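In practice, a research group might receive sequence data for several interacting partners and want a quick structural hypothesis before committing to experiments. The following worked case mirrors that situation: the sequences arrive first, and a predicted assembly follows.
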Amino acid sequence: MEQRAVMAEPIINERVIKACQQGDREAFRLLFEAYKDKVFSIAVYSCGGDETCAGDVTQQVFLKLMTNISQFRGESQFTTWLYRMVANACIDEQRKRKRFLPFADSPPATRIEFKRPQEQRYAKIELADSVRHAIAELKPKFRLAILLRYIEDLSYEEMASILNCSKGTVASRLNRGHKELARRLAHLRDQVVLGD
Amino acid sequence: MFLNHVREQLSAYCHDELDAKAARRVAEHLIACRSCRAEFEEIKAGVKLAEHLPLVKAPDSLWSELENRLEQQVSKQEQPIKARESFRYRSFFRVPAAIAAALVLILGVAAFWIYRQESRRSWEVARLIGAPMIGNSRIGQTGQLGVGQWLETDADSRARISVASIGQVEIDPNTRVRLLETRPTEHRLELARGRMSAHIWAPPRLFFVDTPSAVAADLGCAYTLEVDDQGASLLRVTSGWVALQLHDRESVVPAGAACATRPGIGPGTPYFEDASQTFRAALTKLDFENGMAEATDNALLKDLLAEARVRDTLTLWHLLYRVSGNDRALVYDRLAALTPPPPGVTREGVLQLDEKMLRLWKGHLDNIWTGASPLKKGWINMWTRTLEKIKQ
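A structural hypothesis for the assembly, expressed as C-alpha cells:
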C-alpha cells in the first residue's frame, strides 16, 4: 500500500501540472501514467468489476482533468482535486447503474477476472480475491471511503474534502465499511488477524 | 468512562488519525470496556482485510483510446485558435527536458518520502549493558530499530526496546530479534533465538512475537519468551494472558502458567508452574513425544490425571481438544470431578467439542486460573495500575 503511494506522491509538483495547463501532451501522459491504475481501480470496484465501464469512467475523469486543469489554482492538493473528480464520476456511474442495470446483473463477459486458476493455490491471492468481491458488494458510500483510503492512501482530512463531508462522517463510513468487511469475510479473520 | 464509548473513533484509532491524547483515551477505554473492545476486534479485522485490497492495473489500450478522444476534443477547440498550435508544438519539443526534470524531481521526492516513512516506522532501542547491535552497527546509548532490521545482543549485552507507545521489551544476552511490523493495528517482532521479556499495556492482540514454532499474541500482559537453537520455545506469563498459536492449534496461557512449543508441532498444552513434577513430565511426553496418539490404555494420561489439582484444570481444559475417543472421556471425567461443569454444559456436548459449551465452562474456570472472583478482575486491575504508572 505504501509503495503505491510512493508512485503517486512525486507527481504532485508544480512543473508537471503547469506543463499540463499549457497543453503539454507529454506532461499529461506523465500524469496519466502516475494515476491511471489508481483511478481505474476505484472505477472498477465502483462498476461492480466491469472493466469496460471502468475504462470509460477512467477516460471521462482524465478528459475532464485535461479540459479543466487550467482552472486548478493550487488552492488544494492536486490529488484532492483529482479524486474529487473520480468520486463524482463514480457516484454518477453508480446512479446510472442503479437506474438501468441491477448490480448483480452486469454482463459476465465484461467482468474483471477475479479468479485466476493458476494462482488460486496461493492463500494470499485467494484472500485478495475475497476482499475484492466483498468490497465490490459494499454500499457505494462505504465502498468509496474504503477505496480512497486503501487505494489512494488518503488522510481523513483529504477524504472529507473530496467527499464534501466532515472527518467524523468519513470515520463513521469507514467504521461501517470495516465492520461489513469483517462480517462478510468472517471465515478469513483468523488468517489476517494472526497472520502466521 | 463508560458513558463515553469510543466506537466511532475506532477506525481513526486503527489508522493513526487521532492525536496522541485522543489515541491514549481510546486505548485506555478499550482496556476497560468489553463492548468497545469487541467492536475494536471487528474494526481491526476489517482494516486488516481491507489492507489486502489489490490495485487493478488499467488496460494498456487506455492511453491510445484517451488520446483519440483528446485529439477530437483538441481539434474542435483548436480550429478557431490556430495561434495556440505553434505553442503546443513548441511544447512537444521541450518534452525530453521536461521529462528528465520531472523524473529527477520524482526520484528526489520518492527517496525523501521513503526515508521519512522508514524513519517513522521504527522503535527506540536503549542500551542497558554491553554493545547491542542493530544490523552491523553498534548502538550508542540509544538507537532506532527499523522495520526489517535485526537487533542482536552478545553474551555481555542487553537492550530495552520501546514498543511504539504500547509497552517495552527487554532483550537478554545472546538474543536475536527483528522488527517485522509496527503500525496502529499490529506490532510484530520475530524472536529467532535467545530470551525477551515483554510488558505490554495495549488492547489484546496488538503485539505479536513470531518464533520458529509458534506466534505469541499478547492479550494484555507481561511475559518472558525464550527460543533455543533448535527453534523450541518456552513462554512464561507473569501477569495477564498470552495466546500461543500455530495454524489451528492455540494455547491460552494465564499468569503463573507456562507453555512450551516445538518446531513442526506448535504450542504444547499450558500448565501452571507449580504443578507436580510427575504431572509436567507426563505432559511433555504427551505433547511432544507422540503421547496424544495412544488411543487406549494411555498410561501417561492416567498419570497426569491422577496428579491433577483444581488449578490444573487449565491443562485439562486444553487437553479436551487434543485427545480423542476414550482419552477425551477420561479427561472430561477428571475435569468434572475437580470442577463440576456449569448448567448448560453436558458430558455429551463436551465430548463432541461443542464450542459454546467449552467456552461457557472456560468462563467459569477462568476465575480459578486467575484467582479472581469477578471475571478478569485481576486483569483489569493490572491494566489500571499499569496505566496509572504510565500517567505518572
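Before designing any experiment, note the following. Residues 169 and 198 of chain B are 4 Å apart (CA to CA). The two ends of chain B are 19 Å apart (CA to CA).
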